[in-house]
Design goal:
Blueprint: H1 2-16, E1 27-36, E2 40-49, E3 54-63, E4 66-75, E5 80-85, E6 90-95, E7 110-118, E8 126-135, E9 140-146, E10 152-159, E11 163-174, E12 193-194
Parallel strand pairs: 6-12
Antiparallel strand pairs: 1-2, 1-11, 2-3, 3-4, 4-5, 5-6, 7-8, 8-9, 9-10, 10-11
Length: 208
């Protein structure tokens, strides 16, 4: 009987070590970088709220040899994106066509493998991560997240329109540093939605 119990415990222990799709913490503050094959490079700070379906995004980058700055507030429940210019104290309000997608590994994703970033010779030398592949209506992706905590490390995303885009995440903190990030500044209060053209989505911040 003891042998059976021991064997069952070993089996359960092995099953528990198999990576499973996961969801990132609902409140995050951090930084990211974006690189695409057509001369796009950018770095940004973000504030992420999965409870309220809100993202604040402040970025500086270069696209086709031109520098750009972005301060965007995406309110998915309201279906609105604010593009904020503090220098000119102007605000552009647009419809947001995309649904909110939490930072997570979808349940239908396929595990590519588990690796250690850095070294494995001693404690603290490396980071254990899992890489996943999947396809969506808009494109396909390869997502790498930490084994413990399910924090995003990098995402490769491909669409016919944008090609491959690499997003790398770093300096992640749990929680929201400044709740005011999710409220447009006072000079945005009278902004009128721009109904011309297609509604915006997250990647339209980079390709306008």
């Amino acid at each position: 009987m003891k042998t059976i119990v021991l064997f069952a415990s070993l089996v359960l222990g092995c099953l528990a070590q198999i990576p499973h799709p996961c969801k990132s913490p609902p409140l995050l503050t951090g930084s990211l970088s974006v690189i695409a094959h057509h001369d796009l490079m950018a770095s940004a700070k973000y504030t992420y709220d999965a409870f309220g379906q809100r993202i604040r995004f402040r970025e500086i980058g270069s696209y086709q040899n031109q520098t750009f700055w972005i301060d965007a507030l995406l309110l998915f429940r309201e279906g609105v994106i604010y593009k904020i210019n503090h220098h000119n104290r102007t605000c552009k309000k647009e419809k947001l066509r995309a649904d909110f997608h939490p930072m997570e590994v979808p349940k239908n994703a396929t595990l590519l493998g588990q690796v250690i970033l850095g070294g494995s010779s001693g404690p603290g030398e490396g980071l254990l991560v899992n890489s996943w592949y999947g396809e969506m209506k808009r494109g396909k992706y390869v997502s790498t997240v930490t084994e413990f905590g399910c924090l995003p490390v990098s995402t490769l995303f491909h669409t016919e329109r944008t090609g491959w885009i690499l997003t790398s995440f770093f300096n992640i903190l749990l929680g929201i540093e400044d709740p005011q990030d999710f409220f447009p500044p006072e000079f945005c209060q009278d902004a009128v939605p721009d109904n011309k053209g297609e509604p915006a989505d997250f990647y339209s911040l980079f390709f306008e």
